[in-house]
């Protein structure tokens, strides 16, 4: 928040003798919008970090990659954007060459680390779906998790950091004017093409591959589940289709003497109803000369022993199948949600990164003459906007993080109405 206030103080001090690219009202409006972006980026990512500190249940292997992403994005909103706001509004860098170098190193570092963290998160989701058994064995912070998180930062620094620091010393000259701040390789097409391939094209292809792999994995699993359900239904139909012989026994009511017995025809059985044949008895008069008769209807089947054995086996198998089906449905539902979230990740990653990367390469090829500066600036801010979207796109889409945010933002209401309020609070957070 101190850096945000510093940015506004710098802007307001430049307004009286304003010689920037925009008029004073437009400058104030842009400063407010940019300040709002800083506020959203810092608060969103700070909430993710605070949730990790407060809630120990969040400290799982996959969630540590969300923490790594939040650390990169909070530096974008807390350091990179506030120092750039006075620069873009006044069109002059007022903080000296040393701070310019530091700002460039941190800006390129955290933006690249943010993109690499997205690839790491997508890869982690890919492993959790395709190698679920081995993935569940690994819990919490491990050496492998720390190594992956550190590799992201090291790779991000090595991509641009050494070039920013040493380019002018190797070239033995600087092409940057005194009141400007940008990298020495700003117009070097070859370097930017190689760097952008590593920074954007490779991550984009990787994230797309992980998403498609998860999708096809789910599609491959679905027919197997359908065949299993069909086999279970066939077994149920076989066990339930029982051809029984129904014997009607006539007995006198007084002495219970059996008079005769016969097997009724199919229409007679059908007219009585199969559901009532087991214990049903009726009374009727055969003629006026005979006393009332009681008819006991008994059900026999030569396959009763076989059916009972099959029912016992089928019942045991059915219970196991129900448990397996429930687990399968849960995993399938979870994997579909992961696939959908990864599809959104691919789209947003492309929308936020592709314009800046493509315009940067084209601009370097023609030395800034074929791309309008304002269009390039819009793509630059679109890249930073990704850091404000990430806290909503990643942690907030997971129920464990939503519960942690609920505890932080609405502790009193969460205790009184834990189940009802979580939905309301989720809507508020979204």
Summarize the SSE layout with pairings.
Layout: H1 2-14, H2 24-54, H3 61-90, H4 96-130, H5 132-137, H6 143-171, H7 189-240, E1 245-252, E2 258-262, H8 266-272, E3 281-284, E4 293-300, H9 304-365, H10 373-393, H11 399-409, H12 411-416, H13 418-429
GO molecular function, one term: histamine receptor activity
Subcellular location: Cell membrane
Main location: membrane
Describe the structure.
The chain is 73% helix and 6% strand. It is mainly alpha-helical. A 4-stranded antiparallel beta sheet has the order 2-1-4-3, with no helix packed on it. It holds the Pfam family 7tm_1. It is a multi-pass membrane protein.
Number of DSSP strands? 4
Helix tally equals 13
Radius of gyration: 36 Å
Order of helical and strand elements: HHHHHHHEEHEEHHHHH
Low-confidence parts, pLDDT < 50 over ≥5 residues? Answer: 6-18, 224-228, 234-300, 420-430
**What percent strand?**
5-15%
Major sheet attributes: 4 strands, antiparallel
Structural class: mainly alpha
Relative helix content = over 70%
Anisotropy-based shape: elongated
Task: Compute the separation of the termini in Å.
Answer: 23 Å
Task: Identify the strand order in the major beta sheet.
Answer: 2-1-4-3
What is the residue-mean pLDDT, rounded to a whole number? 74
Keywords: Cell membrane, Disulfide bond, G-protein coupled receptor, Glycoprotein, Membrane, Phosphoprotein, Receptor, Transducer, Transmembrane, Transmembrane helix
Organism: Naja naja (Indian cobra)
InterPro entries: GPCR_Rhodpsn (IPR000276), GPCR_Rhodpsn_7TM (IPR017452), Histamine_H3_rcpt (IPR003980)
GO molecular function, one term: histamine receptor activity
């Amino acid at each position: 928040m101190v850096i945000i206030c510093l940015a506004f103080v710098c802007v307001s001090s430049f307004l009286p003798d304003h010689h920037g690219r925009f008029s004073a009202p437009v400058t104030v409006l842009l400063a407010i919008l940019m300040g709002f972006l800083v506020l959203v980026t810092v608060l969103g990512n700070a909430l993710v970090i605070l949730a990790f500190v407060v809630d120990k249940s969040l400290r799982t292997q996959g969630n540590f990659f969300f923490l790594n992403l939040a650390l990169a994005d909070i530096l974008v909103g807390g350091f990179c954007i506030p120092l750039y706001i006075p620069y873009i509004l006044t069109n002059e860098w007022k903080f000296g060459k040393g701070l310019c170098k530091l700002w460039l190193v941190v800006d390129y570092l955290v933006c690249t680390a943010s993109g690499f963290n997205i690839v790491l998160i997508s890869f982690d989701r890919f492993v959790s779906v395709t190698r679920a058994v081995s993935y569940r064995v690994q819990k919490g912070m491990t050496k492998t998790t720390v190594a992956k998180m550190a590799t992201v930062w090291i790779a991000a620094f090595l991509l641009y950091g050494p070039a920013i620091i040493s380019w002018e010393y190797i070239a033995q000259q600087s092409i940057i004017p005194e009141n400007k701040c940008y990298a020495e390789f700003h117009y070097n097409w070859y370097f930017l093409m190689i760097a952008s391939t590593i920074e954007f094209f490779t991550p984009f292809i990787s994230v797309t591959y992980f998403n498609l792999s998860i999708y096809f994995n789910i599609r491959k699993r679905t027919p197997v589940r359908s065949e299993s359900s069909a086999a279970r239904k066939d077994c149920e139909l076989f066990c339930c289709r029982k051809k029984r012989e129904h014997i009607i026994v006539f007995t006198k009511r007084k002495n219970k003497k059996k008079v005769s017995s016969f097997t009724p025809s199919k229409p007679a059985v059908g007219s009585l109803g199969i559901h009532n044949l087991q214990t049903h008895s009726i009374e009727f008069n055969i003629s006026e000369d005979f006393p009332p008769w009681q008819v006991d209807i008994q059900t026999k089947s030569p396959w009763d022993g076989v059916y009972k054995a099959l029912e016992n086996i089928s019942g045991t198998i059915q219970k196991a199948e129900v448990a397996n089906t429930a687990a399968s449905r849960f995993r399938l539902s979870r994997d579909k949600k992961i696939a959908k979230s990864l599809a959104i990740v691919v789209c947003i990653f492309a929308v936020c990164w592709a314009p800046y990367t493509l315009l940067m390469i084209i601009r370097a090829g023609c030395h800034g003459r074929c791309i309008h500066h304002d269009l390039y600036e819009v793509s630059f801010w679109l890249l930073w906007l990704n850091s404000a979207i990430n806290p909503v796109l990643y942690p907030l889409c997971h129920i464990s993080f939503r519960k942690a945010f609920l505890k932080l933002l609405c502790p009193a209401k969460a205790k009184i109405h834990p189940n009802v309020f979580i939905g309301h609070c989720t809507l508020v957070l979204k």
